[in-house]
Amino acid sequence: MLKEYLQQEITPLFKSSKIREDLFAGFSVAIMAIPLALAIALASKVSPSMALTAAIIGGIVPALFGGARRGVSGPALSMTILIATCVTTHGVNSLLVIGLICGLLQLLCGIFKLGRYARLIPLPVVHAFTSAIAVILLITALPSALQISAPDISHPLDVLRDLNLHLTNINPLALLLALLTILIARKLPRVTTKVPALLVAVIIPTLIVQLLPAHYNLQFVGSLLDDLTLPTLPNFSAIENWHSLLISALAVFVLATLESLLSATSISELGYGDVTKPNQELFGQGIGNIVVALFGGIPITELLTRSQISIENGAQTRRAAIFHALFIFIIVYFFPSFLKIIPIPVLAGLL
User: Fold this and answer.
1) Please, what is the average pLDDT of the chain?
2) CA separation for the pair 341, 351 (Å, rounded)
3) At 291, is the secondary structure helix, strand, or coil?
4) What is the maximum alpha-carbon separation in the chain?
5) What dihedral do alpha carbons 139, 140, 144, 150 form, nearest 10°?
6) What pLDDT score does 18 carry?
7) What local confidence, expressed as pLDDT, does residue 233 receive?
8) Cβ-based neighbour number of residue 243 at 10 Å
9) How far, in whole angstroms, is CA 246 from its chain's centroid?
10) Tens digits of per-residue pLDDT, 38-70?
């Protein structure tokens, strides 16, 4: 099995054939993944570097070991509310433990070939769950879009209540930027599919702000890389409520596993030619979440939309996902000044 895997999956990564297609696909996904990672960090109540770390490490490891040959993994919008709740309840350091537990459970499920049982969960249940997350995400993004004081992320209904209290404090420019972002992201694909709509939706409002004589008290992404950490183990002795933490980790594991398997399966069913191996996918996602957690990132999943974009832009091998992660690394580490000037309301518009 190992010899066959090395010959069929790893060896092609070192051949020059189709490398141009993989490079273009990787770049196409990376320029969309960066603003999304920043938006995910905003909604998850973590630092931007934690989401970017997950995008970089989570883009490479599952690409090497996962079951979807042309799949792309990274931080997911569907996970944001759950992660934010974990941060609020247990603190940001708990994500290290939660990521390790999630990854270990996925790894064991892959080893013991339990991936096929995920298909027994009714799709309406999954759609209802993710739709509820979408509604909560919409509500919790409103304070950033209007640039008003944000209430407790664990109580999204408080957002609607507090909107009445803060209507007089809404920043008009922030609202306009968020609406412009939404308009471009929704309408541009109907005009042309040759340019990445989400990237344009970020660039145009950002340029408009930079051309204004004043920034009118807007909030910006700011410094991204101040808290990047070397691999480290979490401080288990600092954990007080293991029971609650384990329940949170189990919830993250269930959602991450379902999204990964459903995304990987959808890649096959959409006619893209990949044959998904669910147990290997869980194995790859498990290793990915463990490594991401050790580097201080947030949990990751397989991502259908980014996988589709990669494939539609010519991805041929696992290299495309790896290249996408390397492009993110290069932009974040060598050109961070371009990211610092993105207004927070623009990210809220993406959400």
Assistant:
1) 84
2) 18
3) helix
4) 66
5) 120
6) 85
7) 62
8) 7
9) 22
10) 889 988 889 888 999 999 999 999 999 998 888
Please, are residues 70 and 253 in contact by the beta-carbon 8 Å criterion? Answer: no
Contacts of 294 (CB under 8 A, 6+ apart): 96, 100, 231, 232, 233
Residue (of 211, 199, 149) closest to 306 by Cα position: 199
Instruction: Please identify which residue in the block is written with the tokens 């420019």.
Output: 173
Phi first, then psi: what are they for 181, rounded to 5°? Answer: -60, -45
Q: With beta carbons less than 8 A apart as the criterion, state whether 285 and 93 touch.
A: no
Single out the residue of 112, 101, 102, 94 nearest to residue 76, CA to CA.
Answer: 102
Within 8 A by CB and 6+ apart from 132, the residues are none
Separation between Cα atoms, residue 36 and residue 27, nearest integer Å? 14
Q: Is 331 exposed, middle or buried (CB count within 10 Å of its CB: 0-12, 13-18, 19+)?
A: middle
Token pair belonging to 81: 């509310």
For residue 240, what are the CA distances in angstroms to 243, 245, 246, 274, 301? 9, 9, 12, 45, 28
Q: What pTM was estimated for this model as a whole?
A: 0.85
Determine contact, residues 283/107, Cβ cutoff 8 Å: yes
CA 328 – CA 336 distance, rounded (Å): 11
Q: How far apart are the C-alpha atoms of 202 and 347, rounded to whole Å?
A: 8
Contact between 83 and 299 (Cβ < 8 Å): yes
Answer for the pair 118, 261: CB distance below 8 angstroms, yes or no: yes
Q: 234 is written with which tokens?
A: 């979490």
Q: Rounded to an integer, what distance in angstroms lies between the CA atom of residue 162 and that of residue 172? A: 17
Q: Is it the case that residue 297 has pLDDT exceeding 80?
A: yes
